[in-house]
Amino acid sequence: MAQTLKDEVRERILAAARQVYAEQGYATARLVDIAEGARVGTGNLYRYFKGKEAIFDDIATPRLAAELLRRLRIRMRELGRMEDWGQATVSRSASADALLNFWVQHREEVIILLSGAEGTRLGHVRSLVISELSRQAGRYIRKQEEAMQNHADSLPVPPVTRFILTRIFASTVEMIVAILREYKDQESIRAAFADFWRYQLHGLQSLLTRTGSTMPGEH
Fold first, then answer.
1. Model's pTM, two decimal places?
2. Average pLDDT in the 21-41 region?
3. Among 56, 109, 140, 167, which is most exposed with the fewest C-beta within 10 angstroms?
């Protein structure tokens, strides 16, 4: 007689796998750790999934990755339209709030996609996110330079500033992952991102603000 698969056991396996993949990444994750976390034998785990790739595919789906990128791009487009990034905090931005809600609701999956998907069909998502952030840095620089062309006493954006700005955006991914790993409850996650975005947005605005021919911090 065929054995009956139980939804409750399957959900326990997926919950344990989310935690293992988020903590260890797909490449180093072991089925024995997933089975232990789910309180099932490794052999019993194979009754539900063919292996760790099949489990991963059930957790981190292309649809979820596409939604992450979609919400990020909406947020980036909003920033591109704003003159003052200091006004783009969560409390003043619907797109920022929507993106943050997505991170809260899919905390472990976002961690996996941004730091633990190497070796899977979604291993490219992290680089796509970094590229999106870097493109926004480039767009913002060009926007600033176009604005400065109308002022004869303004300086172009120097190579050092370009480098710093690009690295700030790239390191944003590390901060997203760090916050989501450190905090699990919605209140703490939202508070951490509110502080981070306030610091980052005002810092970026200050970095690219020109007053006459003087760079910020120069006297």
1. 0.83
2. 96
3. 167
Highest average pLDDT, of 126-135, 155-164, 196-205, comes from: 126-135
Most distant CA atoms of the chain, gap in Å: 85
Cβ neighbours for 214, distance < 8 A, ≥ 6 positions apart: none
Residue pair 155/146 in contact (Cβ under 8 Å)? The answer is no
CB atoms within 10 A of CB 15: 15
Q: What are phi and psi of 67, to 5 degrees?
A: -70, -40
Helix (H) / strand (E) element for 149: namely none
**62-81 helix and 107-115 helix, angle to the nearest 10 degrees:** 90
SS (H, E, C) the chain: CCCCCCHHHHHHHHHHHHHHHHHHCCCCCCHHHHHHHHCCCHHHHCCCCCCHHHHHHHHCCHHHHHHHHHHHHHHHHHHHHCCCHHHCCHHHCHHHHHHHHHHHHCHHHHHHHHHCCCCCCCCCHHHHHHHHHHHHHHHHHHHHHHHHCCCCCCCCCCHHHHHHHHHHHHHHHHHHHHHHHHCCCHHHHHHHHHHHHHHHHHHHHHHHCCECCECCCCC
CA distance 11 to 190: 27
Residues present in the chain in total: 219
Residues 76 and 96: their CA atoms lie apart, in Å, by 9
Considering only residues 83 and 117, tell me which one the structure prediction assigns the higher pLDDT: 117
